Amino acid sequence: MTPAVPDALVPPALRLIRANRTFVTADGARGVPLTLHEAAGRVHVLPLLPTRGGLAAQRAAVAALRPHNEG
């Protein structure tokens, strides 16, 4: 299946997430598993439910990636 958004248009951090489907925090700790929602030429990062760290970990992952989601 061809992605909705070509790799060339996806920011490097999201390309890594697209490949690994996992968010790694800035200090190198493994974060919550993520998925990408690709539609209308934009890529949005969404945590998979349920997350190991619960709702707090889910919110932290989304907050950390917000600049990518809004770009």
From TrEMBL:
Protein's UniProt name: Uncharacterized protein
Organism phylogeny: Bacteria, Bacillati, Actinomycetota, Actinomycetes, Micrococcales
The organism's place on the tree of life at top rank: Bacteria
Species annotation: Rathayibacter oskolensis
